[in-house]
Amino acid sequence: MLDKEQFADNHFIRTIIEDDLKSGKHTKIHTRFPPEPNGYLHIGHAKSICLNFGLAYVYDGLCNLRFDDTNPEKENQEYVDSIKEDVQWLGFKWADEPRYASDYFDQLFDFAVGLIQDGKAYVDDLTLEEMREYRGTLTEAGKNSPYRDRTIEENLDLFNRMKNGEFPDGSKTLRLKIDMASGNLNMRDPVIYRIRRAHHHNTGDKWCIYPMYDYTHCISDAIENITHSLCTLEFEAHRPLYDWVLDNIPIQSHPRQYEFSRLELLYSITSKRKLNQMVSENHVSGWDDPRMPTISGMRRRGYTPEGLRLFAKRVGISKSENVVDMSVLEGAIREELENSAPRLMAVLNPLKVTLTNFEQGKTASRSADFHPNHPEMGSREIPISQTIYIEHDDFAEIPPKGWKRLTLGGEVRLRHGYVIKCDEVIKDENGQPIELKCSIDHDTLGKNPEGRKVKGVIHWVSAEHAAPINVRLYDRLFTVERPDTVRGEDGEYVPFTHFLNPESKKEITALAESVVNDLPPESRWQFERIGYFVTDRKDHKQGQTPIFNKTVGLKDSWQAKAA
User: Fold this and answer.
1) H-helix or E-strand spanning residue 260
2) Residue 505, marked binder
3) What mean pLDDT comes out for the span 503-530?
4) Which Gene3D superfamilies match (predicted)?
5) For residue 296, with 0-12 CB atoms within 10 Å meaning exposed, 13-18 middle and 19 or more buried, which class applies?
6) Cα–Cα–Cα angle for 272, 278, 280, rounded to 5 degrees
7) 45 is in an annotated binding site
8) DSSP element (H, E) containing 375
9) How far, in Å, CA of 24 to CA of 226, rounded?
């Protein structure tokens, strides 16, 4: 459920919008989220989605979902469908039907013809290599193409023949005639059309020339009457071109572009090209692998839309560097799940405990709420049997200082159950504990023992009633903060795949309360004293052994490991 307070933080874009509304420049806010359908959306896109759709929501405006689909060789319907699903899952609705830049290809072509007729565009025969040589550098001006002074008639003829498929791919381009000496390289006669015979997911084989992103994007904004075109800071140098195009074509609307800093999440990557490499080289199981920073991966990991919206609010919107530690994301998810996820007990590393004075009919069970603060979530009975299992880590024969769990001769309370005392330890041939013999204080069910204090509480499951589960334990995908920025001794970048964390995924068999047998996919739970887990949205099947993915621990353990 969306709430305007979820987007209530003030930032410079909100100040601009409020000034525009107050001055009457705009009477209604209209934003857009314009992904390229060449991969799955990631955490950086989640920030942009929350910004664009959130602003429209806060100011009772509209937000379009528009696919900037100008590169057919890298785009396909799978990516289109995944993007729609991700936006909806995050809780947002776009205005009307989804838009496609390809819907405007006819208009874009007509505008290009108009630019040629005005002497502001020309067909060029330079190769890409030659174009780079002519372009110049940041300190040296470029030089004009030898084809720059073709006549309007010749350019119109060549451009139409490009459209009709008379020339090979890459042999000609259409360029704007701006200024080869401009200090902004984007203004040095940028290419706005290239020849590329590729099947397009939306227009099929109608076109063999495709417009470039910079040319397409601003015109699409104008056609849709976008009021505030929001993009990340790397597009700041593209803004003069954005304005130049709109100033030189016959179109009434002229949106304004505003830039904000992109999100950099440490111990992760957000380059679609590199994420695609991870998938294609089988470093992960797919775009929705729970270790991936994609929205679909985070969803499968058990993250919630509410948690991601909270994260987007916390990282904020500014023009300053937006480098965020993974713990901030995990903290937002943990905070949201604390209130929304019901509890159950599961033992991931079982140690057998025999209750020596267990008496059938006397040793009783208790009921417990699924959430201590939400009785509406219901309750369940927690049965006990002579054999139970606890975590190996909850027993220490030689306990460290401050130990509040079980030790030989010591007492501990079973969560939602009795106080027990460890009387004997049975070990294997290597001296490792394999079974504990413990006695129950039958007078401690639901009350404290008389004459002594028992501080420790541990979770457990009944051997007779527990259900086996498969658990996938996930950790951070990379071992360094910025895996794609590390240079070797030779000064060259080290492949980011060298820093993949070999411990990022482990699969174990565990035991849990029998309630897990009836859970649907994407059912989020807190395993008491361990962390938050979710039934896998793909592999978990009711009637089969439950499959859980670890979402996040109850506390941030990474800093302790890194120290």
Assistant:
1) strand 256-260
2) no
3) 97
4) Glutamyl-trna Synthetase, Domain 2, Glutamyl-tRNA Synthetase, Domain 3, HUPs, Ribosomal Protein L25, Chain P
5) buried
6) 100
7) yes
8) none
9) 16
Q: SS3 letters for 125-161?
A: CCCHHHHHHHHCCCCCCCCCCCCCCCCHHHHHHHHHH
The phi and psi torsions of 3 (rounded to 5 degrees) equal -140, 130
- Ramachandran bin of 302, using left for φ above 0, alpha for ψ from -120 to 50, beta for the remaining angles: left
- Tell me if residue 262 is catalytic: yes
Do the annotations mark residue 283 as ligand-binding? no
> Binning pLDDT at 50, 70 and 90, where does residue 151 land?
very high
3-state secondary structure of 114: helix
Region 466-471 average pLDDT? 98
Of the residues 177, 272, 334, 472, which is catalytic? 272
Name the nearest CA neighbour of 279 among 539, 37, 550, 39: 39
The pLDDT confidence band at residue 396, using thresholds 50, 70 and 90, is very high
122-133 pLDDT, tens per residue? 999 999 999 999
Check: pTM over 0.85? Answer yes or no.
Answer: yes
Q: Is 534 helix (H, G, I), strand (E, B) or coil?
A: strand
pLDDT of residue 5: 81
350 annotated ligand binder: no
Residue 70's φ and ψ, nearest 5 degrees, are: -105, 5
Catalytic residue among 84, 120, 262, 437: 262
Please check whether residue 58 is in contact with residue 20, taking contact to mean a CB–CB distance below 8 angstroms.
no
Cβ density class 510-523: b for 16+ within 10 Å, e for less: bbbbbbbeebebeb
Asked about 234 being catalytic, the answer comes back as no
**Domain layout of the chain by residue ranges:** 4-99+217-333, 104-215, 345-465
Residue 191 backbone dihedrals phi, psi, to 5 degrees: -70, 135
β-pair partners for 122: 175
| Catalytic site includes residue 309 | no
Determine whether the annotation assigns residue 479 to a binding site.
no
The average confidence (pLDDT) of the chain is 96
| Topology at the third CATH level for domain 104-215 | Glutamyl-tRNA Synthetase; domain 3 (3.90.800)
pLDDT tens digits, 49-77: 999 999 999 999 999 999 999 999 999 99
How many CB atoms lie under 10 A from the CB of residue 300? Answer: 26
Mean pLDDT of 18-35: 97
Give the max Cα distance, the chain.
Answer: 103
Q: What is the pLDDT of residues 86-126, one digit of tens each?
A: 999 999 999 999 999 999 999 999 999 999 999 999 999 99
| CATH code of the domain made up of 345-465 | 2.40.240.10
| Residue 561 confidence (pLDDT) | 57
**Residue 16 marked ligand-binding:** no
Check residue 559 and give its pLDDT.
56
Pick the CATH number of 4-99+217-333 from 3.30.428.10, 3.30.70.1120, 3.40.50.620, 2.60.40.10: 3.40.50.620
